[in-house]
Amino acid sequence: MVTDIEAKVIQAKRASIVLASVDTVTKNAALEAMARALDENRDRVLEANRRDVELAEKLKRKGELPQAMVDRLKVNDSKITGMISGIRDVIRLDDPVGKTIDALELDNGLDLYQVSCPIGLIGVIFEARPDVVPQVMSLCLKSGNSTIFKGGSEAACSNRTIFDLLLEAAESVEGMPEGAFQLIETREEVKDLLSMDAYIDLLIPRGSNEFVKFIQDNTRIPVLGHADGICHAYVDSYADLGKAYSVCLDSKVQYPAVCNAIETLLIHESAVDRFLPAMARIYDSAGVEMRCDARSYSILEHIDFLKSIVRATEEDWSTEYNDLIISIRVVDSIESAIEHINTYGSHHTDVIITENPLNRKAFTDLVDSSSVMVNASTRFADGFRYGKGAEVGISTNKLHARGPVGMEGLLIYKYIVLGDGHKVADYVGPDARGFTHRKLSKDLSETINRE
């Protein structure tokens, strides 16, 4: 007997075949309809979110939900505008499907094409953030991928309202298949979803470290994402202190509950006396708790008005706080800073503040992270800010896609061979024909339509 969740997955899988061949004009029309639907129904979205936040605040007071998750859950008019802008940015992106990546003549009249195509059916499992729905749906639609969404119960009203608006708008456009996008809502369905490797081609989890790790450990479906967001700022001995104050404040305080906010501040010993007292005052005024190693603590403990400095433990170096907390360590060299980052970091995003070109090159060459910044906030590590229109997530993987992942992470490729009755038997044996293996500048779409 087919369960409800299996029926949804099978329908989305079948629809993915049709969606893969939908033309650009139709996809862009569906995206514009989605953007208008959000714009015209702001009150519905805000009211649904109000109900979610009201319940989340009650759970927070009971200690059942952290503040960081409540913060991620909240939607306001500005966030809705951002959702709409993200969808319209995707409209402006080139259609990535059917692009010729490479072309090779195997022999006269026998040509090989490597062509981009959708992955197929994507499963997106996320916590708290309702803006994941328009971000991911728009990218998956443009890249021709069907999608199964599973949001957290804390955002159930928001997710359902946004999903229904977008789905109705997209399916109202002639040429769009029905059932390509599905929403599941119960916790029990997640286990079923993780077992459906026969249908689902890729999973993208968005949430806490424990949540992502659970997904990775309980499925055979490939998973794109990261478990931790332990990011660092390193203030070099050659740092411009004005830039350092600005970058270190923004990287921690601008939005502390996200994966690209820094958790650890590393300072070269020759800069610490000049930099740390003023930086500590800035952090203190922003309500940041500072967890200090022995050297930094000895500098700050004599500043009477600092409200929150404590001694760091070994555990702090590998902790993602997602809060107004930062660990601070003094290092004796750039090599020590790089070693610390590669040892304790999560290969997500790290920044050096320096005016020294040799140190800049060493840091960017040797820090093994998906994004490495020079004199710029780690908060720039984002699909929208990287010009991808939006992002489906940030990956610390080294296979398929890395860093903020936009549409390129939702594509794979296929090989297409165009021949004229060619057979392998002619290329085997003493009288075998040879391959030319000559690079071609031809595009498959033009060739296949012409011939």
UniProtKB/TrEMBL annotation:
<keyword id="KW-0963">Cytoplasm</keyword>
<dbReference type="InterPro" id="IPR016163">
    <property type="entry name" value="Ald_DH_C"/>
</dbReference>
<comment type="pathway">
    <text>Amino-acid biosynthesis; L-proline biosynthesis; L-glutamate 5-semialdehyde from L-glutamate: step 2/2.</text>
</comment>
<keyword id="KW-0521">NADP</keyword>
<dbReference type="InterPro" id="IPR012134">
    <property type="entry name" value="Glu-5-SA_DH"/>
</dbReference>
<comment type="similarity">
    <text>Belongs to the gamma-glutamyl phosphate reductase family.</text>
</comment>
<protein>
    <recommendedName>
        <fullName>Gamma-glutamyl phosphate reductase</fullName>
        <ecNumber>1.2.1.41</ecNumber>
    </recommendedName>
</protein>
<dbReference type="GO" id="GO:0055129">
    <property type="term" value="P:L-proline biosynthetic process"/>
</dbReference>
<dbReference type="InterPro" id="IPR016161">
    <property type="entry name" value="Ald_DH/histidinol_DH"/>
</dbReference>
<dbReference type="InterPro" id="IPR000965">
    <property type="entry name" value="GPR_dom"/>
</dbReference>
<dbReference type="InterPro" id="IPR016162">
    <property type="entry name" value="Ald_DH_N"/>
</dbReference>
<dbReference type="GO" id="GO:0050661">
    <property type="term" value="F:NADP binding"/>
</dbReference>
<dbReference type="Pfam" id="PF00171">
    <property type="entry name" value="Aldedh"/>
</dbReference>
<dbReference type="GO" id="GO:0004350">
    <property type="term" value="F:glutamate-5-semialdehyde dehydrogenase activity"/>
</dbReference>
<dbReference type="GO" id="GO:0005737">
    <property type="term" value="C:cytoplasm"/>
</dbReference>
<keyword id="KW-0641">Proline biosynthesis</keyword>
<dbReference type="InterPro" id="IPR015590">
    <property type="entry name" value="Aldehyde_DH_dom"/>
</dbReference>
<keyword id="KW-0560">Oxidoreductase</keyword>
<comment type="function">
    <text>Catalyzes the NADPH-dependent reduction of L-glutamate 5-phosphate into L-glutamate 5-semialdehyde and phosphate. The product spontaneously undergoes cyclization to form 1-pyrroline-5-carboxylate.</text>
</comment>
<dbReference type="InterPro" id="IPR020593">
    <property type="entry name" value="G-glutamylP_reductase_CS"/>
</dbReference>
<keyword id="KW-0028">Amino-acid biosynthesis</keyword>
<feature type="domain" description="Aldehyde dehydrogenase">
    <location>
        <begin position="3"/>
        <end position="283"/>
    </location>
</feature>
